[in-house]
Amino acid sequence: MGLTKRLSTILKAKASKALDKAEDPRETLDYSYQRMLEQLTQVRRGVADVATSRKRLELQAAQLTQSGAKLEEQARQAIAQSREDLAREALSRRASIVQQLQDLKTQHDQLDAQESQLTQASQRLQAKVESFRT
Prior knowledge:
Elements: H1 2-22, H2 25-80, H3 84-133
């Protein structure tokens, strides 16, 4: 048992020494630098994706707001024509739109927070890349 353990330790030491000789520190540093650049690119892509999603939500909210205004106007016209049933229907649809707008606002806030976090991560990673160069 003792002989096997000693032999194992010797083999591990020899293998480690051989790997140390084969390993080039410049290659290791170049590889690390390359990985950092790839991560920075991924984070920046993530920021762009989140910003795009946020913009889509803003456009969707604008469209829903316009639809809500139209429905409110339709409800007013229906009341003016003594058509309470149509007015109720328009106001019911408008209430649904208001709920959708609230949901979009929540999603928008989440995307803002996510974009902020990714931007900060990008800045930290950029600083690491800059310090790595020197």
